[in-house]
Write a structure and sequence with these properties.
By secondary structure, this protein is mostly helical. Among the domains are: 50 residues, no CATH class; 75 residues, no CATH class. Helices cover 59% and strands 0% of the residues. It has 15 helices and no strands.
Amino acid sequence: MQRNAYKKAIGERIQQLRKGLRKEGFNGQPKTVNKFLEFLNPKIDDDYDNYGDYSLTDIKFSYKKDYVSKVEHGIIFPSTDFLFLIHLRFNVSLDYLVFGHNLPEIEELRKICKHSGKSKITDFCFNLLEDNSKYAEDFDDEDEDFFVDYRARLDEVRKYFCTHQQMKLTQKQFSELLGVSKNTMDKYHSKKNDVQSKKYADIRNTALEYLIRFSLTTKCSLDYLLYGTYLLEGFPSELMELLRNYDYAKQTQILKLWLEETKKFFKNS
């Protein structure tokens, strides 16, 4: 993994968003660093229900102009909280911010939505799942305290990857595959810190470099790891929320099903 190249590319994409240089929809966004920080800063009256799917505690916003400069010039990796706020405010995927592209299935579905209409695609995809009983929702919506954080998803995807690839790897062997020490892997997978503790938040905020390695190795989306679903402009929010009810294995199957069936149906119609 070329860590400096990733830091530079992430910084450049964030700077482009700040300056409104992307062609698809961000003209008129705040351009100065101070206004950019004000734009990102979570406010008490914010109507952002989505924070609760990323963190059970308020996001502590202590970023300054110097921090933004270091991120944009590729000197440091952004914290996951900082990246997540950009992800929400600009309606771009975490995969785009880090890798420069979206998950292929999501990108293709977005293109189909653009040509055939979001509502048609949404209804079609909902019906596909209703007609298939094996996609009964995995999670209990009535349990308001149920929270899945990135550590659970890391373990879930690691196990899926080893099973799917028929690789019976020990945790040490898996860490070697990622190119990190076993202690580093344990740091980000460990459940010893409560999800509402400061220690948990501090560790999560240093996780991006590890998550990049993990995503590159397993081919798992960063959006799934940190958010449990996919947020980007042009992808139906109803489908985004529906996917959140499924684990990684079923989300993978569902996205493949949606893409295959929508391509066939809307091509013929």
